[in-house]
Each structure stands twice: as C-alpha cells, then as structure tokens.
C-alpha cells in the first residue's frame, strides 16, 4: 500500500512524463527550431561573430574558472551571472546585428548577425 | 615606471643608494619573493623574514584584496583557509594595523553566505575596523550591488564611494566596477569624478592622500582590461598633493610604479594568483603546485610616518 502523499507524487511524475512525451512528439512533427552554441573560454566568445537565421536560439556556455555575464550592448538581452559550466539561452526573433559583451570583463565582446 | 616629473619635495630622498637601474632590477624580481618598502620615494627590497616594520610609525594599516570567497576551483579549493592565514599573519605583525582596507572581490559570486564567511573570518582580526570597495564579483546579486551596499555601503555615496581621514591622512575609496562599457576598462563615471573633485578641493597640499579602488587606476595591461578608462581625470585632481598612494587589487599580483609624487601599487590576492600580463592565453586563475600556493598569495601593510612624504608599502606572502 502506498501512502496518499506518495500516491500524489506518482500521479505528478506520471503527468510530467506525459507532458514531456507530448513536447518531444510535437517537436518531432513541427519545424525543428535552429539552435547554436557559443563557448566562453579563456575570456573570449567562440565564435566571436556568428550569423544565424531569425528564430535561432543561441546558448552561451561558460567553460572558464571565472564567472561571466552576457549582455547585449543595447540591453536587448542579459544573462544572470554564469559560473563555470552554466548556460544562458536567448532566441533571436528579429533580423539585425546584435553586439554583446561580458559586463564583468568588457574587453570580451561578440556579435550576432540575424538574417 | 617612468618618472614624469621630479617632485622637489622628494628630491632630498633620492640619494640613498638605490638608483633607477637598481629599481628596475628589483622590479623584475617583484613577483618571485621579495618584500618592498617604499621609503622617501625610493623602493628598497628585502629578503623575507626580516623585521620590516619601521621603528616608529604614525599610522599603520593593512590592505587585503581579492578574497573571492566561494571560489572552489583547482587554483585554490580552500579560500577560507588562505583568508584565515592572512588574518593570522596580520594579527602577528610587529606593528598592529589600526584598520584593514579590502580592495574588492570580497566574494566570488556575491552570495550572502560568501559575504557572511568573510565577515566571520575578519572578526578574528585584532583590527576591528575594515574599509571596503567593491570588485566586479561583489555586485552580481539581482539588484546589481544592492546587497553589497546594504552590507558595506553605510556612509557611502553612489555605488559605494567615500572618503575618511585617519591621523592626518586622507583616504578615498573609489568604485570603478559599475556601468562598464563594451570594449572598455574600469570606469569611475562623471558623478563620482565630480564628487572626488569636490572632496579634495579644500585639502591642504601637504595632506598625504591614499586612493584605493579595485581595478588598477593606471594602465597595466589594457588587453586584459587591467586599467581604468577615466583614471587620468581622477589623478588630475591629485596633482597638487605632495604624497599620493594608489592601492588597487584585481590582478592578483604585485605591480608598482612611481610617477612624480604618486606611488601606484597593486596587492596580491588571498585566494589565487593570476598570470603576468600577456604570459597566458587569458587572465584566469593560475594553478601552481599546492606547496607553492601560499608563496603567491599575500597581504600588504602600509606605514605612514609624519614628515616623510611617501608611505612605506610592504608586501608579504602567506608562506
């Protein structure tokens, strides 16, 4: 016999499983959204300049032993502080050229060209 | 390291046997285990282990920097232990300091428990008064520095700048780690510069001035961001003074320069070393063999003797 509390937890987990499956299935049928990664390493963004199509999600991942913070030069997007191995994602829906930098180490700069 | 203008007030102290070439030679050794005393404008190096305290001083204080509480990467997995060692060392100084200056990066990620740990460790210092300026690692809370100001910002202006006087020495704590611009260096900003200009306007020219801030107020290595864009303007307000000492952190190693009546000095970290400018792909934490770590961490004590124009700055390692 399971206790009512435990039973509730099982129901919740089962629901989450269904939801996850649904998400995966719908993703499979719909147009796969573009995504790409920018690595932060040795106090630099790689690639420093990247060209993507509108709707692309970019994920920054910090591989340094020092935290970094990604910030659009015109404040369009802003990450929280990213400690080692932490990530930040942002979807670029509008065409344009977006310059960004690390607000802790402003010598670190990058650019995203959205077509 | 150039001596741009001779300061007539210091001319009498140039004849103590250390010439410019000697100074340059010593500079090359600075990172490898020498202690510096700046006395009467002339840097003198000493081997470790000697009593470096001046016989009598009118004011002694200690600078610590870059404790990076919360850092736990291979370059130092025990930043609590090394900060405790630093405080033990300060408590053992022959001339006890009247207060401590912390030149920023108190914490690694601005988390409350990181600040709590530092506060707790500093309670064991015999010197009860601690003056802070923030490093960029101290303003990472959601409020962009609100928690720093709530903790350390009483009696400060703006992002946390302030001044105070001790035994006739005027201290100015500056903040150059907020509103950093893409591609730029440290920034003081117009509001702070205006405040500083007013702050020193009515001081006597003979007042010794100590300026402290996190990022160096002189251009050490702009490629790594080791400088402050508008520092020349700030230093311009100090031209009239016969003795100016500029104390910074951020670069986790000792660098010094004397320019006229201004002595620039950066302190070691109590947490981890960083590479010499350009000697590594990036300024990230430098891993050294465990038994050498304490030889690249350290504290800085500063002594002021009335009538001497230049404050004596003495660095010592944690081991």
Give the key terms.
heterodimer, A: 115 residues, Immunoglobulin-like, 4-stranded mixed sheet, 1 helix, globular, B: 319 residues, alpha/beta, Purple Acid Phosphatase, chain A, domain 2, 6-stranded mixed sheet, 5-stranded mixed sheet, 6 helices, disordered N terminus
Q: How would you describe this protein?
A:
Chain A has 2 domains: 1-31; 35-114, Immunoglobulin-like (Sandwich). Helix content of chain A is 23%, strand content 37%. Chain A has one helix spanning 4-29; strands at 35-41, 44-46, 49-52, 56-62, 70-72, 87-92, 96-102, 109-114. In chain A, the strands form 2 sheets. In chain A, strands 2-1-4-6 form a 4-stranded mixed sheet, with no helix packed on it. A 4-stranded mixed sheet of chain A has the order 3-8-7-5, with no helix packed on it. In chain A, a hairpin with a 6-residue loop joins strand 7 (96-102) and strand 8 (109-114). Chain A starts with a helix and ends with a strand. Chain B has 319 residues and is an alpha/beta fold. Chain B has one domain (8-317): Metallo-dependent phosphatases (Purple Acid Phosphatase, chain A, domain 2). In chain B, helix 2 (79-91) packs parallel to helix 3. The A-B interface holds A 42-44, 64-67, 69, 73, 80-81, 83-84, 99-101, 103-107, 109 and B 73-75, 108-110, 136-137, 140, 142, 180-185, 222-225, 281-285.
Quick recap:
Chain A is of the alpha/beta class and 115 residues long. Helices cover 23% and strands 37% of the residues of chain A.
């Amino acid at each position: 016999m399971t206790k009512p509390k435990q039973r509730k937890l099982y129901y919740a987990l089962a629901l989450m499983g269904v939801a996850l499956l649904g998400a995966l299935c719908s993703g499979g049928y719909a147009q796969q959204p573009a995504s790409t990664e920018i690595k932060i390493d040795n106090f630099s963004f790689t690639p420093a300049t990247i060209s993507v199509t509108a709707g692309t999600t970019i994920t920054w991942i910090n591989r340094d032993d020092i935290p970094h913070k990604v910030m659009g030069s015109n404040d369009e997007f802003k990450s929280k502080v990213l400690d080692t191995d932490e990530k930040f994602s942002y979807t670029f829906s509008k065409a344009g050229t977006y310059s960004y930098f690390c607000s802790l180490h402003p010598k670190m700069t990058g650019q995203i060209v959205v077509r | 390291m150039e001596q741009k203008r001779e300061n007539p007030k210091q001319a009498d102290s140039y004849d103590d046997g250390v010439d410019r070439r000697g100074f340059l030679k010593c500079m090359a050794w600075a990172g490898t285990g020498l202690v510096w005393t700046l006395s009467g404008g002339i840097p003198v190096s000493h081997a470790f282990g000697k009593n470096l305290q001046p016989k009598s001083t009118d004011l002694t204080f200690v600078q610590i920097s870059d404790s990076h509480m919360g850092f736990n990467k291979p370059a130092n997995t025990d930043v609590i232990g090394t900060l405790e060692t630093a405080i033990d060392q300060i408590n053992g100084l022959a001339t006890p300091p009247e207060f401590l200056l912390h030149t920023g990066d108190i914490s690694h990620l601005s988390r409350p428990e990181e600040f709590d740990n530092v506060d707790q460790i500093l309670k064991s210092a015999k010197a009860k008064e601690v003056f802070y300026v923030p490093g960029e690692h101290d303003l990472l809370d959601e409020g962009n520095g609100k928690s720093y100001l709530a903790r350390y910002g009483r009696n400060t202006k703006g992002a946390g700048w302030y001044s105070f006087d001790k035994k006739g020495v005027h201290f100015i704590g500056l903040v150059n780690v907020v509103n950093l611009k893409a591609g730029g260096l440290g920034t003081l900003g117009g509001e702070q510069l205006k405040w500083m200009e007013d702050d020193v306007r009515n001081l006597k020219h003979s007042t010794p001035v100590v300026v402290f801030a996190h990022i160096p107020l002189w251009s050490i290595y702009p490629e790594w961001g080791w400088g402050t864009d508008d520092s020349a303007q700030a230093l311009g307000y100090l031209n009239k003074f016969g003795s100016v000492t500029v104390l910074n952190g951020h670069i986790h190693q000792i660098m010094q320069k004397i320019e006229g009546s201004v002595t620039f000095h950066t302190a070691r970290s109590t947490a981890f070393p960083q590479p010499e400018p350009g000697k590594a792909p990036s300024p990230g934490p430098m891993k050294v063999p465990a038994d050498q770590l304490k030889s690249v961490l350290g504290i800085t004590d500063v002594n002021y003797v009335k009538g001497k124009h230049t404050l004596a700055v003495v660095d010592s390692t944690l081991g």
